[in-house]
Amino acid sequence: MSSPPDPSDMIRDARVLQDDHLPREIVHRHSEMSQLAGALEPVVDGDKPQHAVLTGPSGAGKTCIARATLDRLEEQVLDVHTAHVDCWLHTSDFRVLYKLLESVGTTYDIHRTTPLDELLLRLEEIDKPYLVVLDEADQLEDPGLLRQLYAIPRVTMVLIANRERDLFDPLDSRLQSRLRSSEHVAFDKYSHGELVAILSDRVEWGLAQDVVTDDQLDRMATAACGNARDAIGILRTAARRAERDGATELRTADIEAAIPEARTELRQKSLDRLSSHQLAVYEVLRSGGELMPKEIYSRYEDRVDEPRSKRTIRTYLRKLEQYNLVESEGRGPSRRYEIVTK
């Protein structure tokens, strides 16, 4: 049993300051949540839900809304399974299928040598509707897995990606057509006011009373540039600094120091998630400075034993840019990339 917080502690609930924490009440994104719920809610009446695709920039609330929607449906329907799989961490067919079966408790006798067909057969034998969130679905090593999951009647997919094109382009034309007819929920960056509201909610539940001013919330929201993950990271880092120094309220110096520190921390988290090939592309840029795509690919080929295609490397570069690991200037083949250092 955990002890009550010390009255002098600034941070009352550190979990609330994590960017993957699911808040008690969703602040904003109500229309997006309603749209996704509308696609999935037929399951409440025993009907077939609709597949859904969620797209938008990093930190726009896609994962939060998907998780919250599934949680609410589970409260309404007893006979339904749900799962959330991060396809950036679990990129192979085996890992994704294992995680899906693990969520329904049928993995005790599965080994790495278990044939994929057997794993798919077990999914087909599940006797309840299965709502599956595949986060970062464009990171799958074999996009053909989506076609196999689509063919399982009780499985309904919620696919999350930054860009629809990156998700759909590797798919065969038939599956593209089917997924384009699914529910598409588009997310934009948060507005400044929305980020302030999100931060205010985290402060209310995670910090002691009256330790953050409205002007400080405004400053953190401005620095985050529409990205909720960045905003929460800045708040978390600033609060840790203040508490470490024994301060009773957040100071301007804490926030100004937290802005670059939080960005560095988030950048490292993204780096830790990269596959070996994505990391090789990043290392090419880190050692080579500003480079054009053809130069990047040439140096990447020299670093790995089984290089991916040029098209795949272009996809990697877009992903690295979306997660603020690299930045680019120019267009087309003459575009130049370099790593983000600030």
UniProtKB/TrEMBL annotation:
<feature type="domain" description="AAA+ ATPase">
    <location>
        <begin position="48"/>
        <end position="191"/>
    </location>
</feature>
<dbReference type="InterPro" id="IPR055237">
    <property type="entry name" value="Cdc6_lid"/>
</dbReference>
<dbReference type="GO" id="GO:0006260">
    <property type="term" value="P:DNA replication"/>
</dbReference>
<dbReference type="InterPro" id="IPR050311">
    <property type="entry name" value="ORC1/CDC6"/>
</dbReference>
<protein>
    <submittedName>
        <fullName>Orc1/cdc6 family replication initiation protein</fullName>
    </submittedName>
</protein>
<keyword id="KW-0547">Nucleotide-binding</keyword>
<keyword id="KW-0067">ATP-binding</keyword>
<dbReference type="Pfam" id="PF13401">
    <property type="entry name" value="AAA_22"/>
</dbReference>
<dbReference type="InterPro" id="IPR027417">
    <property type="entry name" value="P-loop_NTPase"/>
</dbReference>
<dbReference type="GO" id="GO:0016887">
    <property type="term" value="F:ATP hydrolysis activity"/>
</dbReference>
<comment type="similarity">
    <text>Belongs to the CDC6/cdc18 family.</text>
</comment>
<dbReference type="InterPro" id="IPR003593">
    <property type="entry name" value="AAA+_ATPase"/>
</dbReference>
<dbReference type="Pfam" id="PF22703">
    <property type="entry name" value="Cdc6_lid"/>
</dbReference>
<dbReference type="GO" id="GO:0005524">
    <property type="term" value="F:ATP binding"/>
</dbReference>
<dbReference type="InterPro" id="IPR049945">
    <property type="entry name" value="AAA_22"/>
</dbReference>
<dbReference type="InterPro" id="IPR036390">
    <property type="entry name" value="WH_DNA-bd_sf"/>
</dbReference>
<keyword id="KW-0235">DNA replication</keyword>
<dbReference type="InterPro" id="IPR036388">
    <property type="entry name" value="WH-like_DNA-bd_sf"/>
</dbReference>
